[in-house]
Amino acid sequence: MIGGDCINHNEVVQISDAYLLPLVSELYGLEGYEFKPIPAHDGGRNVVFTCEKEGADAFILRISFLPDRSREDFLAEVEYIRYLFQHGGSVSDVVSSQKGKLLEEIVHRQHTFFICLFVKAKGKMMVENHYRYREGVPLSEYFYNCGKVLGKLHEISKGYTPVQRRYSFFDKYNAEYIDQLIPDSLSLLKEKMAELLKTLEGLDMDRESFGMLHFDFNDGNYSIDFDNGQITVYDFDNSCYGWYMYELTDLWTSGVGWVQFEPDAGKRRKFMDDYFETVIEGYKSETSIDYSMLDKFPLFLKITLMEGIVDSFEVMRNNGEAPECDEELAYRIKCLEDDIPYRGFFDEIYSCEHPFEYVKRDL
Fold first, then answer.
1. Which letter does DSSP use for residue 33 in this model?
2. Kind and range of the H or E element at 95?
3. What is the pLDDT of residue 45?
4. H or E element: which one contains 36?
5. Measured between alpha carbons, how far is 358 from 360 in angstroms, rounded to an integer?
6. Nearest to 309 by CA among 158, 178, 196, 163
7. 353 — phi, psi (to 5°)?
8. Which long-range contacts (CB under 8 A, 24 or more apart) does 327-330 make?
9. Are strands 34-37 and 59-64 parallel, antiparallel or unpaired?
10. Cα(361)–Cα(324) distance, rounded to whole angstroms?
11. Enclosing H/E stretch for 46
12. Sign of dihedral through CA atoms 292, 297, 302, 307?
């Protein structure tokens, strides 16, 4: 096998060009389509291609190669996506192969590649449009639609009973795993995380508050049709069971980019209050949320910090790198260790010249 027991992204691209793509073309009837690789982002888990042919629908091909997820994990993901699509969720549908399968497997040199094909979403990502919204339309429409689309996904999830079940929040975020992952030099951080997890254990986990989440709902994982503002969500690779309030809170964190360079903390707060009020209005147009959960917003903001910290250490581990603490990670850790509310966005720790950065620290 190329590169020994483990293969990396570039090696999978080589294997794809030489071996996998002709098989995929046959499996999905994609003869005559042009396959173009999409550049990998930091921490990306898959090799992804656009599949385009003049006069025909465009698709996105995903080839998963890391060994840490099972066939059942992938099946659970694509079954959930298909369920969302069939029940009116604004998601990129998964495409069945010629054999009628949502998931295909190809074994090459004793390595299993999991293959999924998706309908390419209409429109562009915000970054591709240089973070400009629709001409002559206020940003508030976009904020409302973000909440509305997420609310619809959560409303559908409340009626979802899986055949294959994805993992749950506590399967990944637990004291034992965090203790193994995070260096012992960050003992205070580990204590704070353990306290947060203990608090979460006491929360309701009924169907109205806890269910399947996208768990990475941000403008890197949906496209916008700039003719009508319609948002189409994709990349459910991190989907899992968790609190709906977590994902709604995480949408708050997506809003800070619009005002992160504003030097006046009062203006930043006013913008974020208006932004989130609009998001919640859109959300409530599709589903309900209990006021007792909305009151947990400060708690879930801390949980989003914890998730980001865990993700940073996982990426370093998966890349075979020694743990280190750059300015962004140091900022998250400082906010959690010192119980600084609102991710420090309205606090003295925040700098609009260097948003969400703090002094690097040795581990």
1. P
2. strand 94-95
3. 79
4. strand 34-37
5. 6
6. 178
7. -80, -35
8. 327/354, 327/357, 327/358, 327/359, 327/360, 328/356, 328/357, 330/357, 330/358, 330/359, 330/360, 330/361
9. unpaired
10. 8
11. strand 46-52
12. positive
**Predicted local confidence at residue 42, as pLDDT:** 63
Query: What is the dihedral sign for C-alpha 150, 155, 161, 167?
Result: positive
pLDDT along the chain (363 residues), means of 10: 60 90 96 92 80 96 90 96 98 98 94 96 96 96 98 98 94 94 96 96 95 97 97 96 98 97 98 98 97 96 97 89 95 98 97 97 91
Closest by CA position to 29, among listed 94, 105, 117 = 117
Q: Which amino acid is at 32?
A: G
What is the distance between the alpha carbons of residues 36 and 60, in angstroms, rounded to a whole number? 10
For 4, other C-beta atoms within 10 Å of its C-beta total 6
Which residue in the block uniquely carries the two structure tokens 């930043």? 268
Strand partners, 191: none
List phi, psi (to 5°) of 309: -65, -45
Q: Hey, CA dihedral for 289, 300, 84, 53, is it positive or negative?
A: positive
CB atoms within 10 A of CB 231: 20
Q: What does the alpha-carbon distance between residue 56 and residue 71 come to, in Å, rounded to a whole number?
A: 30
Looking at the chain, the number of H-run helices and the number of E-run strands are 12, 10
Structure-block tokens of residue 224: 């916008």
CB atoms within 10 A of CB 123: 19
Report how far apart, in Å, the C-alpha atoms of 315 and of each of 168, 320, 342 are.
20, 9, 25
CB 60 within 8 A of CB 22: no
Tokens encoding 336? 């959690």
Give CA–CA dist 189/122, Å, rounded: 42
Q: Position 143: which residue type?
A: F
- CA dist 363 and 46 (Å) reads 30
Q: What angle do CA 356, 358, 362 make, to 5 degrees?
A: 135
Instruction: Tell me how far apart the alpha carbons of residues 86 and 81 are, in angstroms, rounded to a whole number.
Output: 9
Supply 342's token pair: 């609102």
Residue 258: Cβ within 10 Å count: 16
